[in-house]
Every structure is written in C-alpha cells, then in structure tokens.
Specification:
Layout (H helix, E strand, L loop, with lengths): L2 H18 L20 E3 L9 E3 H13 L15 E2 L9 E2 L1 H17 L5 E2 L6 E2 L1
Antiparallel strand pairs: 1-2, 3-4, 5-6
C-alpha cells in the first residue's frame, strides 16, 4: 500500500472515530487475554502479548508506529513535542501522535466485538467461553 493511500485511510479512520467517539486518553487501558479473532481480524501485535483483535489496516499501522516510535522518544524516556505514549495498555511507551493513541484506545474498546464470541464473557478479558 502506498504511503499516500495509508495517510488517506488513516485520515478517514480518524474522522470516523471522532464521529463515534473515542476512549478518553486518561482511561486506564488493560491487557486482554488471547482469544480467537473473528474472520477479517487479527491480533494488533503492538508487542508479543497484545491480543486485541483489529483489522489488517490497523495491525499494519501499529507495526509502522513500532518502527517509528523510538525516533520520537527522548533520552529521558518521554516523547518529543507533538507525540505521546501510545498507551495501548498500561505501560505501553511507544511514542505516537495523539490521534494514534486515540485509535489504540478505540480499538481496545471495540475488541470484544472483533473476537470470537461464545456464551459467557470473562470479566476484563474480551474472551468468551462456551
């Protein structure tokens, strides 16, 4: 996918999320248990244990964030001006734009709709058991 097409798609995604509302940046983000994602979704993989189910485009965006994040981090561990910690979970310190952090929080909020559902939801996990 060309970078121009990715930028256009990200812009559309940001506008859509502003329309539906995003999770506040100060909300604590929790890890989710490993589940099976619905068809068309895969693990976000912000790190090796990030099991939030997202579409392929979101997963690709996160891989770019992971690659670019270190170039926006200062020696003291904080992010340079204009960037914030992604905070996909409590302790995620990848430096991204505020819009990218809002997308990660919105993905967390939508996770339970993207994983395979069974009869009983486990509290705080996003997983469903038979």
């Amino acid at each position: 996918m060309s970078s121009r097409k990715l930028i256009i798609n990200l812009t559309i995604l940001i506008l859509a999320q502003s329309w539906i509302g995003a999770v506040p940046a100060n909300a604590t983000q929790y890890r989710v248990s490993k589940c099976e994602c619905n068809e068309g979704f895969q693990f976000r993989q912000a790190d090796g244990t990030d099991y939030v189910c997202v579409d392929n485009q979101a997963s690709a965006r996160v891989q770019i964030e992971n690659s670019n994040g270190p170039s926006h981090k200062l020696e003291n561990g904080y992010c340079e001006s204009g960037y914030v910690w992604r905070d996909a979970w409590d302790g995620d310190g990848v430096c991204v734009t505020p819009e990218a952090r809002s997308m990660a929080h919105a993905e967390n909020a939508r996770h339970t709709g993207n994983d395979t559902k069974f009869e009983v939801q486990l509290p705080y996990s996003g997983c469903y058991l038979k």
